[in-house]
Design a protein that fits this description.
Layout lengths: L1 H4 L16 H6 L1 H11 L5 E3 L5 H10 L13 H8 L36 H17 L9 E6 L6 H12 L5 E7 L2 E2 L2 E2 L11 H11 L3 E5 L3 H8 L3 H11 L2 H9 L3 H11 L4 H6 L2 H9 L6 H13 L5 E6 L21 H10 L16 H35 L21 H16 L23 H6 E5 L9 H4 L12 H4 L20 E3 L4 H11 L2 H5 L4 E6 L8 H9 L4 E5 L24 E4 L4 H16 L8 E5 L8 H7 L12 E3 L8 E3 L8 H12 L3 E5 L13 E7 L3 H12 L4 E7 L2 H5 L1 H5 L3 H6 L7 E4 L8 E7 L3 E4 L10 H5 L3 E4 L10 H8 L3 H14 L3 E6 H6 L24
Parallel strand pairs: 1-2, 2-3, 3-7, 6-7, 8-9, 8-10, 10-11, 11-13, 12-13, 14-15, 17-18, 17-21, 21-22
Antiparallel strand pairs: 4-5, 16-18, 19-20, 20-23
The structure holds thiamine diphosphate (TPP).
The site of thiamine diphosphate has 19 residues, from helix 2 and strand 4.
Length: 910
């Protein structure tokens, strides 16, 4: 496959290399073989090291398990096309394989995306936990084992070590990691320090994993070696291989082709080996050195079976292998991406009896091997189909149950009136607490305990979502307001008794953290390990797609530390996991708590939707909409939800106060409004015109919030409102709306009408999701445009011609984060913009001080507004008076740019 990928005829000059990793494939050949041909079931999940992907595909080809999305099998022709299509682009009409495992591959059943080493094995462990969690909570999931094949250098990734103790403590017995221990990495031989580390890296891994509660199985030797060990002096050879040699020396010995010289060299360095060396032939020594256990399928399969017997502890199998096994490049230092030449490929083909141009061939179905494969394929395919049938059954069950009490309501209806200056993080706590309470309240009122109130009609539809909801945090559950969701509800191996209660020292003001496996236990407590939680939230978020159980995982993390798990976060989005990540508190708004934590997760990644609500009610709507979309499978293209919250309180009453001033929310308004404190001739005092009822206003607001932005202050419809003269639009993200409001008030005193548009989702408004519909909501929903507002200029006019001057409405944006969050609005629309954001490291202080320090406070917004208004180009246009008379402001939707673009195939007249 790799050779073929590198020999396509459609190359263009300057194309980047295609490449591939035959040597890395070869070392995993038998590990993958034992898995496919013996150990795995169609219910199991396998995470492969990225460079073993072609091996995985090849086994699936041999097993006739390349499938379309509807689970029908690829024809022989299509399967060959796929094998010929490694690393090839397809528009969907051809079957291909990506360089590393991906959903585009026709064998992606129960796959883990790969490419980034160090993450898939961890996802496999958390997927195993998700299965167990689902089962303990009464959902039907298949009996599956979770396998991960990793490289020995990959095993130095911090992400893996972060998860190692966690998997053991959580008793993930259904997890087996298989280490492809080939002693080489990308740059060549791995050179470790045997002296200081008290042994080879394999020894170190064994001790590390055993110390962390894992079962360890070393598969060091193949049958040829075992036969040599049984000979007289054979023990010396075993001891030499296992104890004496360091990995680098072994790799060097493998490079020596002259056996006489080799024997001499070994005897010189290791005199005790002399007798053994004299007793074996050159060939025996040559083969014995290369006969690693990781190429002995039977031993590997036995180890895999053994690993399944360890039901409480996870297992690591250290499979000793040869990088480049069976290839000329075997053990060569630079073999990681070296490609075989045509003569080697031909020799490999000939050895398999493949002739002519054919590159791929299945085994003769009438041969014993062919029959074995057919039976194996049928078994695995049957299990795969059973999984899909179970998924369909689960989906049907949940859909029916989720609509039992009608649609999921728009809000959980948290009362914010009793709290002074609540913040969005507080609101998260209220929402998760309420969901938890609803989940743990029986519908059957006769089963209510003393303290439980029956569920209201609004709460009943949340009963099942509440049960499906699981929260988790990297040791910041209490500091991110998740206490009620944690208290007495920790899901974990029930290995301790409640000592505090037994000893009478329980502090009931603090959450009870003793783990258990009750149905009401729906919180996963983590050590400080953001990477683990991010992988876990991703794995739980895949349960909907894999087995049809729409568990709703939510994690909290200090926003600043999302970057520590950014790779895992990206992975989850690529994998199309459906999850909620709450970065809180976020931005420099968290000062004085953490001055050093000023970076904010303002990132644009496909399949993500970010939210940054200003008021608490917005978060209620966003959360309920997110939950509904998740359980109803209605979030394609935005399955990863990232909420950025703050601990900065906001006067919630201001929301309705400002909304009620807007002309669009007034009842029976005739004429134009004016602000009470700044009366304008011809304007009606805004306070004298009644506004609509709160519910109607909030209904409209909810729709706008969920589209990404809303006018909080809107002077359209006010007397003296002159776009192109005294109007500016301020876009403020999340909590920065407070600064927008203050700036707008200050500007009004100077006769400037500054609209304040609260941005709730930068992605929807002007990010990737907005791009999908050409920023329709920004342009047409909010009506932000680049209209040139013309006025007669003072310049001398001649005849019918007059000079007019025009300006557009400029934009100022302000974000507690990167300037780039909102700085494209001006260019999208075609108006002058000034973007304010955080451009320096932060320090301690109250928000007012810190915002001023970063120049994102109200004063900075005022200044920016002044600047853009002044700098907005005064464009001069000469028109005829009659034409000007006919000019009017064109309202309505803007033309699509393609209307103005020359047609692609112009018709030429000859
Ligand atoms: C996170 C990450 N870092 C770097 C790489 C590039 N890379 C791919 S494979 C590899 C070496 C892998 O060596 P090892 O884990 O020993 O596996 P082997 O190929 O030798 O079996 C590197 C550095 C990557 N894919 N992902």
């Amino acid at each position: 496959m790799i050779w073929q990928a590198n020999h396509r005829s459609d190359k263009e000059k300057g194309d980047p290399k295609i490449g591939g990793h035959p040597a890395a494939c070869a070392s995993s050949l038998h590990i993958m073989g034992a898995l496919h041909l013996m150990a795995k079931t169609g219910f199991d999940h396998i995470a492969n090291k990225p460079h073993a992907s072609p091996v995985d595909h090849s086994y699936n080809y041999l097993l006739d398990l390349l499938l379309k999305n509807d689970l029908t099998k690829l024809t022989q022709e299509q399967a060959d096309q796929a094998m010929n299509g490694l690393r090839k682009f397809t528009d969907g009409s051809e079957f291909v394989f990506q360089s590393y495992h991906s959903a585009y591959d026709p064998d992606h059943h129960n796959f883990f995306p790969s490419g980034t080493v160090g993450i898939p094995p961890v996802e496999a462990g958390y997927m195993a936990l998700a299965y167990r969690y689902a089962r303990e909570h009464g959902y039907e999931v298949p009996d599956a084992h979770f396998w991960a094949v990793c490289g020995d250098s990959e095993f130095r990734e911090g992400s893996m070590y972060e998860a190692v103790p966690d998997f053991a403590e959580r008793e993930i017995g259904s997890l087996t990691w298989i280490l492809d221990y080939n002693r080489q990495s990308l740059d060549g031989h791995r050179i470790t320090n045997k002296e200081i580390m008290n042994g080879t890296d394999a020894d170190r891994v064994e001790r590390t994993m055993a110390a962390n509660g894992w079962e360890v199985i070393q598969v060091r030797h193949g049958s040829k070696r075992l036969a040599l060990f049984a000979k007289k002096d054979g023990e010396t050879f075993k001891n030499f291989l296992e104890k004496k040699l360091e990995d680098y020396e072994l790799q060097s010995l493998l490079l020596v082709q002259d056996m006489k010289a080799l024997k001499k060299g070994i005897a010189k360095e290791h005199p005790d080996m002399k007798k053994f060396l004299d007793s074996v032939s050159d060939e025996e020594l040559y083969e014995g050195l290369r006969d690693f256990g990781g190429h002995d399928m039977i031993q590997l399969a036995q180890a895999m079976e053994q690993s399944k017997l360890s039901t409480r502890r996870p297992t690591i199998i250290i499979a000793h292998t040869l990088k480049g096994w069976g290839l000329k490049a075997a053990a060569q230092p630079g073999n990681h991406s070296s490609l075989p030449q045509e003569d080697e490929v031909n020799a490999l083909k000939a050895a398999q009896g493949i002739t002519g141009d054919t590159l791929y061939q299945r085994l003769d179905p009438n041969s014993a091997a062919g029959k074995f494969l057919a039976a194996r394929s049928e078994k695995i395919f049957g299990e795969m189909k059973a999984q899909y049938a179970l998924k369909a059954k689960n989906q049907e069950y949940f859909l029916k149950k989720l609509t039992e009490f009608g649609e999921i309501p728009q809000a959980l209806e948290i009362n914010t009136k009793m709290t002074s200056y609540p913040h969005t993080q507080w609101m998260l706590g209220q929402l998760t607490a309420k969901l938890t309470r609803i989940a743990n309240t029986p519908l059957d009122e006769s089963k209510l305990t003393d303290k439980q109130k029956p569920l209201t009609e609004n709460e009943k539809p949340f009963k099942l979502p509440g049960e499906l909801f699981i929260s988790m945090a990297p040791d910041v559950g209490t500091s991110t307001n998740l206490n009620p969701a944690m208290d007495g509800k920790i899901f974990g191996a029930p290995v301790v008794v409640d000592h505090e209660t037994d000893l009478g020292v329980k502090d009931h003001k603090l959450p009870d953290l003793v783990p258990g496996e009750e149905e009401s236990d729906r919180f996963l407590r983590f050590e400080i390990a953001e990477g683990n939680v991010m992988s876990c939230v991703g794995a739980f978020g895949k349960m909907r797609d894999i087995v049809g159980v729409p568990i709703i995982p939510l994690m909290t993390v200090y926003d600043f530390f999302i970057k520590r798990a950014l790779d895992q976060y990206f992975y989850n989005l690529y994998w199309k996991s459906s999850f909620i990540c709450v970065g809180t508190p976020s931005g420099v708004s968290l000062s004085p708590e953490g001055a050093q934590h000023g970076w904010k997760s303002d990132i644009q990644i496909p399949n993500q939707i970010t939210w940054e609500p200003f008021s608490c009610i917005e978060l209620d709507w966003i959360m309920c909409d997110t939950i509904k979309r998740h359980v109803m499978n209605d979030n394609a293209g935005r399955t990863g939800t990232l909420l950025r919250l703050v601990t900065r309180g906001v006067e919630q009453k201001d929301l309705l106060k400002y909304l009620k001033t807007q002309a669009r929310f007034k009842q029976g308004l005739e004429g134009q409004l004016s602000r009470a404190e700044f009366p304008v001739a011809g304007g009606i005092n805004e306070e004298e015109v009644a506004a609509m009822d709160d519910a109607s206003i909030l209904q409209t607001l909810r729709e706008e919030v969920l589209q990404g932005a809303y006018y909080l202050i809107d002077y359209r419809g006010y007397a003296g409102y002159e776009p192109g003269d005294n109007v500016v639009n301020i876009f403020a993200l999340g909590t920065m709306v407070t600064e927008g409001i203050k700036a707008s008030e200050a500007l009004l005193a100077r006769g400037i009408y500054a609209n304040v548009i609260a941005v709730t989702s930068q992605d929807l408004l002007c990010g990737i999701l907005g791009h999908e519909n050409d920023y329709d909501y920004l342009k047409n929903g909010l009506g932000i445009n680049s209209n040139l507002y013309l006025r007669k200029s003072e310049d001398v006019s001649t005849g019918d011609l007059i000079t007019v001057a025009g300006k557009r409405v400029p934009v100022v944006s302000v974000a507690d984060g990167e300037i780039g969050m909102l700085d494209n609005i001006g260019s999208l629309i075609g108006v002058r913009q000034e973007a304010l954001g955080v451009i320096k490291h932060s320090k301690c202080g109250r928000p007012s001080e810190i915002y001023a320090y970063h120049h994102i406070d109200a004063e900075a917004v005022v200044e920016a507004c002044g600047k853009v208004l002044a700098e907005t180009a005064l464009e001069k246009v000469i028109v005829s008076e009659s034409a000007l008379g006919a000019t009017h402001q064109a309202e309505g939707r803007t033309a699509h740019w393609t209307d103005l673009w020359p047609s692609k195939n112009p018709v030429h007249k000859h």
